[in-house]
Each structure stands twice: as C-alpha cells, then as structure tokens.
Amino acid sequence: MKRGVPWLWLAILLPLQAHATQADQVKASHGWIRLLPADLPAAGYVTLDNQGSSAATLVSARSAFYASVMLHQSATDTAGGSSMRMLDRLTIPAHGEVSLAPAGFHLMLQEATHPYKPGQTIDVTLDFADGSHLRVPFMVRPANAPD
Ligand SMILES: [Cu+2]
Q: How far is the CA of 56 from the centre of ligand 1 (A)?
C-alpha cells in the first residue's frame, strides 16, 4: 500500500499547479491611497509584480469603502495640461512589474460609503481577466502626503 502514496500526492498537487490563477501569480506591494478632502475622489496606488510565466490582466477593482472604483491613467498633453482617461484593462506582462503611481496609472475611488481616516488601512479587491481576485491592503495617507 505504501507504493500508492506518491501517486496520490501527484494526483492532488498537479491540478493545483496547472490551474494557478492570475491572482496567484501577482504580488501586490506598497498599496496606498491619497485621501482628498470633502467628496473629492481618492487615488489608489500599488505595485503589481507578476511572478508567473503568463500575462495577468487587471480588469476591475472594488472596495467596500467606495461605490465606484475605476482604473485610470493620467497623461500630460502637448500643451502641458494633465488629463485622465479610463482604462478597461491593465496588463502585467509575464515576469514583469507595473506600478500604479502618481502621474501614471491609478485607481480612482469615488463615492465613499464609510468614513475613514489617514493612518487606517482599507482593502481593495483587484479582479483579473480569468475571474480570480486579489485582496490588497491600502494604507490611507493625507492629501499632502509625498508621492
Ligand atoms: Cu483618475
């Protein structure tokens, strides 16, 4: 009977490896939110490191603290003005890293549903194209926090 044991382990472990999700591949770090006064939208930043051998595509984000969380990209136009546009997806290449950072990609968090303050940490859930999701803690910082 002992000979059967390694085969049993293979049967359990192989399917798990074959079905690693995009969320499993991505490590999120340095999540933080710049909280603006009144009802202004807050911006969320995080570094996403894809340790897998296939691309991971972020398709949406959500939080219990906001009714609306969108994926945005800031850009500077030729006249020197800045604008934002909404993205419907953000791809993190295999073995690559994408940073959501001031003046670039960010999460735009609107319509706060619960009061909270700088110094707290709130969770944001990132949804990937394969249906997997990753819950990431974001440290809340005040409006004047350095980039
Ligand atoms: Cu924005």
A: 22
**Each residue's pLDDT tens digit, 70-93:** 999 998 878 888 889 999 999 999
pLDDT score of 98: 98
- Domain tally, the chain: 1
Sign of CA dihedral 19, 30, 41, 66: positive
- Residue 25 near residue 51, CB atoms below 8 Å: yes
Ligand 1 centroid, distance to 129 Cα (angstroms): 21
Would you say residue 147 lies in a domain?
no
CA 98 to chain centre: 10
What is residue 63's DSSP assignment?
B
Which domain, by its residues, includes 61? 4-141
In angstroms, the Cα distances linking 147 to 54, 78, 100 are 31, 23, 11
What is the CATH classification number for the domain harbouring 134? 2.60.40.1890
- Is residue 125 predicted with pLDDT exceeding 80? yes
Q: Quote the ligand 1 centre to 86 CA distance (angstroms).
A: 7
